[in-house]
């Protein structure tokens, strides 16, 4: 079961509890479902009970217990546990991993994006005419649009033409003039000129640090070694593409299925929609950049086991690992695209 399907299942439980008179709330449009945090258990967790408790006029754990009883009736769950102040922890039957990979491969680089086009709020995004602020505003606008928001970007001053021609930062004012939300992006300015780094490394240098941290210019963003997070992300992506080419030469193709010893990678991939939503909400492209490093680092241990060795014949396990590797590469490519950074197939 995919996170999107889980969200619908949780909302269906809420709706049934409302219809039965157990809860008096408006059923929300979305339930956030993500891998459990510290103190949690199972495959996924949701904070829907905390979200509804005030409207229900009941403690979150009471709401959680009502929903737990409903969810336990679903055949797809082996257990539902309430932890902390009212988190619902969901343990799935054995096909969760394959379902997640299927969803990623079906949606491609748009995995984690809003599924109904532009349906969110109108956002007016402002930034000063400083190179880091302009690049951050451009990345924030990309992520907001991925979540269905209408965005108009305005620069308080005249940006240098090279910021667009070299770094690809488009802050051309367009979109609705009247907004539901007004956001100002004002990160710590860059201490040097990122233009010599080029588009990809220059944008990463400005986006990877948190807004309150000073970026390193020039730093080691062009160095092709493991100490460079951008290299690790792009190298992991390129490796997944190479594996797909090599597998095709061997006559087999990806097929989603269970993969053992890849819990960290499944957790990181499953967390991607939540990270995109949080990046959009808090206007923090550094959050997405760090998440991509997490995905890449979790994917690398899997990759050597994707192809059969020697005279070994491709098996269902190889096809499942190949599908998981393709899903990881897809998430890396989609995330880099939202940051305005290329994901080359060869590196």
Can you describe what's shown?
By secondary structure, this protein is α/β, with parallel strands linked by helices. A four-stranded antiparallel β-sheet has the order 1-2-4-3. The protein has a three-stranded parallel β-sheet with strand order 6-5-7, with helices on one face. α1 packs across α3 and α11 runs antiparallel to α12. The protein is flat and about 60 Å long. The longest helix has 23 residues. The chain folds into three domains: 91 residues, Arginyl tRNA synthetase N-terminal domain (Gyrase A, domain 2); 86 residues; 110 residues, Orthogonal Bundle (Isoleucyl-tRNA Synthetase, Domain 1).
Key phrases:
347 residues; alpha/beta; Gyrase A, domain 2; Isoleucyl-tRNA Synthetase, Domain 1; 3 domains; 4-stranded antiparallel β-sheet; 3-stranded parallel β-sheet; 12 helices; 7 strands; 46% helix; 10% strand; EC 6.1.1.19; nucleotide-binding
CATH topology of the largest domain: Isoleucyl-tRNA Synthetase, Domain 1
The side-by-side strand order for the widest beta sheet comes to 1-2-4-3
- Beta-strand percent range: 5-15%
Radius of gyration: 22 Å
User: What percentage of residues falls in helices of 4 or more residues?
Assistant: 40-55%
Total number of strands: 7
Structural class: alpha/beta
Main beta sheet: strand number and arrangement? 4 strands, antiparallel
Instruction: Flag low-confidence runs.
Output: none
Order of helices and strands: HEEHHEEHEHEHEHHHHHH
Question: In CATH's first tier, which class of the largest domain applies?
Answer: Mainly Alpha
CATH superfamily of the largest domain, called what?
A: Isoleucyl-tRNA Synthetase, Domain 1
Q: Count the helices. How many?
A: 12
Structurally, the number of domains stands at 3
Shape: flat
């Amino acid at each position: 079961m995919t996170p999107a399907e889980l969200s619908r299942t949780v909302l269906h439980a809420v709706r049934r509890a409302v219809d039965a008179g157990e809860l008096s709330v408006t059923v929300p449009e979305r339930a956030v479902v993500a891998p459990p945090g510290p103190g949690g258990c199972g495959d996924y967790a949701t904070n829907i009970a905390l979200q509804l408790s005030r409207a229900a006029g009941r403690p979150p754990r009471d709401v959680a217990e009502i929903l737990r009883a409903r969810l336990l009736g679903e055949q797809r769950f082996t257990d539902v546990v309430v932890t902390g102040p009212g988190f619902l922890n969901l343990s799935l039957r054995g096909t969760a991993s394959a379902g997640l990979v299927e969803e990623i491969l079906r949606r491609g680089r748009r995995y984690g994006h809003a599924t109904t086009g532009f349906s969110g709020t109108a956002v007016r995004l402002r930034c000063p005419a400083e190179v880091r602020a302009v690049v951050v505003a451009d990345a924030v606008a990309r992520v907001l649009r991925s979540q269905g928001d209408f965005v108009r970007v305005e620069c308080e001053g005249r940006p240098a033409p090279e910021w667009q021609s070299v770094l690809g930062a488009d802050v051309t004012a367009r979109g609705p003039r009247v907004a539901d939300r007004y956001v100002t992006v004002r990160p710590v300015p860059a201490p040097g000129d990122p233009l010599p780094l080029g588009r990809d490394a220059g944008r990463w240098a400005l986006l990877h640090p948190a807004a309150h941290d000073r970026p390193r210019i020039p730093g080691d963003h062009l160095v092709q070694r493991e100490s460079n997070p951008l290299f690790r992300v792009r190298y992991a992506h390129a490796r997944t593409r190479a594996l797909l080419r090599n597998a095709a030469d061997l006559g087999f193709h990806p097929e989603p299925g269970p993969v053992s010893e890849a819990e960290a990678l499944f957790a990181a991939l499953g967390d991607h929609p939540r990270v995109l939503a949080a990046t959009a909400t808090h206007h923090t492209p550094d959050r997405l950049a760090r998440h991509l490093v997490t995905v890449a680092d979790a994917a690398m241990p899997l990759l050597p086991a994707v192809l059969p060795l020697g005279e070994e014949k491709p098996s269902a396990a190889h096809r499942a690992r190949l599908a998981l590797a393709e899903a990881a590469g897809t998430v890396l490519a989609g995330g880099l695209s939202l940051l305005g950074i290329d994901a080359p197939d060869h590196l």
